[in-house]
Design brief:
heterodimer, A: 114 residues, alpha/beta, Transcription Regulator spoIIAA, five-stranded mixed beta sheet, 5 strands, 32% strand, globular, B: 177 residues, alpha+beta, Heat Shock Protein 90, five-stranded antiparallel beta sheet, three-stranded mixed beta sheet, 31% helix, disordered C terminus
């Protein structure tokens, strides 16, 4: 299943609700474009909600890292919400779990941007 | 080998039927174009293999993901999407291990030269995690230079819980009551 992305705003945070796979050819470019759009529009607080993402490959991991570093370079922040077991597994194996700010509660995640 | 499944019906009758989930032995080989469709095909074959071998969902996911990463490497980094080059894939379940080979026709890959993606200076790089994931998710990974090309052999050992019913040559009864 390709990646679908829905965007919403809450308390100054842009939340991207992602659903599907973040892989080479099936979502990693969509994610990159979506985040670049937000950052170019001046959004500083970006929360990626990954509760419906059940697969990420090395290319998708690369996009998450690029999103993180691109945001940081623009004084913006990208944080992660609601990791599925498989995505968490891959982030832990690659030690990226320690790089990202990760939450399992949306209100808590939104509050962390303030 | 024949594998039988024994089921008790609610009315007390017993059904015995040859299981439809008997693991497939033997070796399947494919030659595929250097496209992402081929990657999807190889991934699907890996998923079927892990399911028929009785791996649990987490282990199956890890093996299929490693196979997919190897196929992506072959198509993208090995063959560079070159339509004149193919990738080869083979799948074998010998009852003790799953053995998957993925080969390309590219310029070759020196695994010793792949940077460690866990090193602090590489942790925030956008690429370079594919081979690491393959090595993390499988029990053995072997590289062979084909001149031209690289062949990766991926091995997943089957635990007794997943694989013991594949070792027996005698008929077995699985009573599910």
């Amino acid at each position: 299943m390709a990646l679908s992305i829905a965007t919403r705003q809450l308390d100054g945070v842009t939340i991207l609700d992602l659903s599907g796979r973040i892989t080479l050819g099936e979502g990693s470019v969509q994610l990159r474009d979506a985040i670049r759009d937000l950052i170019s529009k001046g959004d500083k607080n970006i929360l990626l909600s990954l509760g419906d993402v059940n697969y990420i490959d090395s290319s998708g991991l690369g996009e998450l890292v690029s999103a993180f570093t691109t945001a940081k370079n623009q004084n913006a922040e990208v944080k992660l919400l609601n990791l599925t077991k498989k995505v968490k597994d891959v982030l832990q194996v690659t030690k990226l779990y320690t790089v990202f700010d990760i939450y399992d509660d949306e209100a808590h995640a939104i509050g962390s941007f303030k | 080998m024949r594998l039988f499944l024994s089921l008790d019906k609610p009315d007390g009758q017993k059904i015995e039927a040859e299981s439809l989930t008997e693991p497939q032995k033997g070796r399947q080989s494919f030659k595929l174009a250097s496209t992402m469709d081929s990657v999807a095909e190889v991934e699907a074959a890996a998923e079927r293999m892990t399911q028929s071998a009785g791996l649990d969902e987490d282990e199956g996911f890890r093996v299929a993901m490693a196979v997919r990463e190897a196929a992506v490497n072959a198509v993208l980094h090995g063959n560079g999407y070159d339509p004149s080059k193919q990738i080869s894939a083979s799948f074998e379940n010998n009852g003790k291990s799953l053995i998957i080979t993925i080969a390309d026709e590219g310029e070759g890959l020196d695994p010793e030269k792949i940077p460690d993606p866990l090193a602090p200076e590489n942790l925030l790089r956008g690429t370079g995690r594919g081979i690491f994931l393959i090595r993390s998710f499988l029990d053995e990974v072997h590289f062979r230079q084909l001149h031209p090309g690289t062949e990766l052999t991926l091995v997943k050992h089957l635990s007794p819980a997943a694989g013991n019913h594949q070792d027996a040559d005698a008929p077995q009864d699985l009573d599910t009551k």
